[in-house]
């Protein structure tokens, strides 16, 4: 039981040392992630359409 208590004390002390990002930074990084997801989603969708079209020409 003491080990579990020590573990959670350690977790609590570690969370105090974390430097959390500011709100403005979080919004900026979130926008970058969403834009990259959209870009790669469209990129792979385009590749899928092209390969489907080429497969239709071959068969």
Number of domains: 1
Average pLDDT reading: 95
Number of strands: 0
Class by alpha and beta content: mainly alpha
Q: Main β-sheet: number of strands, strand sense, barrel status? A: none
| H/E element order | HH
Q: What is the alpha-carbon Rg in Å?
A: 23 Å
How would you summarize what this structure contains?
The chain has 2 helices and no strands. It has 59 residues and is mainly α.
Structural overview:
By secondary structure, the chain is an all-alpha fold. The chain has one domain. It is built from two helices and no strands. The longest helix is centred in the C-terminal third of the chain and has 36 residues. The chain starts with a helix and ends with a helix. The mean pLDDT is 95.
Helices and strands in order:
Blueprint: H1 2-17, H2 23-58
Features:
59 residues
């Amino acid at each position: 039981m003491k080990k579990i208590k020590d573990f959670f004390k350690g977790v609590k002390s570690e969370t105090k040392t974390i430097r959390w990002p500011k709100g403005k930074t979080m919004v900026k990084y979130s926008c970058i992630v969403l834009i990259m997801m959209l870009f790669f989603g469209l990129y792979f969708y385009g590749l899928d359409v092209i390969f489907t079209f080429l497969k239709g020409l071959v068969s």
